[in-house]
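Subgroup meeting minutes
Present: P.N., E.W., G.H.
Scribe: E.W.

1. P.N. recapped why we're keeping a running log of single-chain structure predictions: easier to compare across weeks, and new members can see raw inputs and outputs side by side.
2. G.H. added today's entry (356 aa).
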Amino acid sequence: MRNIKQIKNLKGKTVLLRVDFNVPVKDNKVEDDFRIKKSLLTINFLLKKGAEKIIIIMHLGKDGTKSIDPVIKHFFKISKCSKSKIEFLGNIRKFPGEMTNDPVLAKKLAKLGDIYVNDAFSVSHRAQASVVGIPKYLPSYAGFQLEEEVKNLSKVFKKPKHPFLFILGGAKFSTKMPLIKKYIKLADYLFVGGALLNDFLKAKGYEVGQSLVDGKSYGIEKILKNKKLIIPEYVLVKDVSGKFIQKNVRDVLKDDVILDIGSESTKLLLPIIKKSKLILWNGPLGKYEDGGGGATKEVLKMVASSKAESIIGGGDTVTLISEMKMEKKFSFISTGGGATLDFLANGTLPGIKALK
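Output recorded in log:
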């Protein structure tokens, strides 16, 4: 990838900057500005090198209907940038042709600037006009955050340190299965939590009650035989009366809902964390919005206290880290969700290829 340090002359130039400011907004206020802060290094560099104007391209929400005004207000509050130097284009997903990578829109956008910079790793798995279309018509470069993501996430499949522990949680089994198949070979330990765990327990013949399961096979039976795989034996369930109970997986009943891994399971993970030199983590270990966030918080503290190089990805996990004010406790925190999964599985993304 070409990076912004390779831009020879920025003086008097207008930069089109694709960022991911798709942050949680409640009551017209930004609740978590982690992603916004991550792009400030790139923005400040471009201004310092003489860019006349930066046109920020962003989206908020899935369909482009949300107003980006709260994000703009928060940005100027934390960035101290001059409003004469920064212009927000609007919610890019309301532009017809963005989602379908329409070349007509890409050309129209390209005419607004002299240089294109992508600093939005977390949307770089999308073949959209503002991600892969504009680079066809303008000199294009990677921002510092995009470059950091690629550099750090590449460590886990290019000569990873050992012992290497991969903690995998969350749901969406179909998107996680490529990671399981790849990293069961690369890692020394693969610990499974979240809703993914329910499918593994079911495949082993255990009762999972009313818990969320994918239902498809995906070849789990073959993976279950691998000695690197660690399946928690204790879980936190909500029973039919609404009580939260720690149980051995053998004791789960038909009306139970598994919400988290159990505290005994987190204790068993501690010695592995202590001896690991590299820890990759993607996805929460429980459904924290329903009271299943305890294990994720406990294991985050364990990883933060370890001497391992720690690389954390996945939107929900990152939200918890922000809530716990632990952003500086890990070696690297990815801003991506689906992009992180795709990059870890494939080693590149459409938005990265577009910059070559």
